[in-house]
Amino acid sequence: MGMLDQLLHGFSIALTPQNLLFVLIGVLAGTVIGILPGLGPMSAIALMIPIAYGMEPTSAIIMLAGVYYGAIFGGSTSSILLNAPGVAGTVATSFDGYPMALRGRAGKALAIAAISSFVGGTIGVVGLMAIAPGLASFAVSFGPTEYFALMVLGLTAVVSLGGNNLVKGLISAVVGVMTALVGIDSQTAIVRYTFDLPELYEGVEFLIVALGVFALAEVLVMLNRRGQGGARKGVTSLRLSGRELGRIAPPTLRSSVLGFFTGVLPGAGATVASFLSYSMEKKIARDGDTFGQGNPKGVAAPEAANNAAAVGSFVPLMTLGVPGSGTTAILLGALLVLGVTPGPTMLADNPDMFWGVVASMYVGSVVLLVLNLPLIPVFAKVLNTPRAVLVPLVVVFCVVGVYGLSFSVFDLGLLAAFGAVGFLMRRNGFPAAPLILGLILGGLMETNMRRALQISGGDWGVFASEPISAGLLAVALLSLLPALVRAVRGLRRGRVGPSSPEAATDAGAVPDGGSEDQAPTPRG
């Protein structure tokens, strides 16, 4: 009853006219930022810290939190309509969202994304409210060995999305990890794989790779298909039937829980949560072989997970002062600037802030749903844009987003290079999902592996001797077994090699819009 009283007190704070206005400003800004590649939630929050500096701390953090989960919520729009993920956490949404859009079901895809995001955010808020202290103490038990094992699990789960061709999935993942290692080694200051180009000293930005492999590659596919016509269909009904809602309900609920628990672990975040949930649903769904071809469950699962994870990342931030992601690291800086020190005593020292933020998240989820559902017809009209107009628009979209990062012409060259890589991958049946996640997780895997080996004195057995780490690695191995079994069966029947992947690419990728042969190339 005490918790209920505190939550009601939080609503009394969040529902004041002033804080309602800041919730609205935050989620609106976040939604727009999420739609536009180049301005992620981290840069947006960093830019708004000077604005928040003169505000009352509770109102300021309510607004900044709104920017964060609003950006995660809004990032699905460009992923679904243009195959141009603006936020890393919505890459997995494009795997099925974009093929749905190409088949005239953009309205349904956006509606599913909005509803799943709302459910995920709501479940995340309930989890944050109910079990934050206990979960935070569990998260502290994760050391470098456990984090390395978690990253390996995340990567192998997505490698298995490569369909029947496990080798191509592994190659794609290795290329992603290699790309993540480019730049100056943070521990030894050794310059790695830069070819003496100073522009690569700081590494390769995620946005450049994501927009190149997804959006620019899609432009090249469109140009390659010119004259074939009929790729895009008109937008049909936006309404979801009771049967459709029933189909997406179980994956939405499962992914919300998985996403929240993943978000609680510092370093995992919305991106890992979305990929893990997508992989889990593909494995357990009866129609898992249709993932990547426009399956609504493939939209619902990552959208529910990434929103739940965004809320979950506030658990270590608020109760331990440990940022769970890059964005919450910026929020931690904002809290310190505002004179608030998050940690175990925050609930006692600043109950108004903690419960006000918790309540504001629920209010923000409702505001996002109310704002976005009526706008779906407007968003969906993007698909009616003639190809002659849409192709240059997507290119401009990519160029502005990448150039805005560092105002570097070299980055535009990298964008073009990764666009060509993405196009060649799709023509040859290589899935893009493992490459993207390899890029995201590569640095984290290396850092935690090194820390674990330093602590153990170079003993590799430490990864198997720690119970949680050993369990996660065992699950990672098991996740590869189905693909291995399929590969062995294919070898016995003489069906591996070009036939499978080619079928995946030529029969599915091109007429389907291809962009998601990238995702799972599940057609192969």
Defining key terms:
single chain; 524 residues; mainly alpha; two-stranded antiparallel sheet; 2 strands; 73% helix; disordered C terminus; transmembrane helix; membrane; DUF112_TM; transmembrane
User: What characteristic shape results from the CA principal axes?
Assistant: globular
Mind describing the biggest β-sheet? 2 strands, antiparallel
Mean pLDDT: 78
Taking all Cα atoms into account, the compactness measure Rg is 22 Å
Low-confidence parts: 496-524
How much helix, percentage-wise, in residues? over 70%
Give me the strand/helix succession: HHHHHHHHEEHHHHHHHHHHHHHH
Distance between the termini: 54 Å
Which helices and strands occur, and which strands form pairs?
Blueprint (H helix, E strand, L loop, with lengths): L1 H13 L2 H19 L5 H13 L3 H26 L8 H12 L3 H35 L3 H16 L6 H15 L2 E2 L6 E2 L13 H19 L17 H23 L4 H16 L12 H16 L1 H7 L5 H12 L8 H4 L1 H30 L6 H20 L2 H19 L5 H24 L5 H4 L1 H27 L5 H11 L15
Antiparallel strand pairs: 1-2
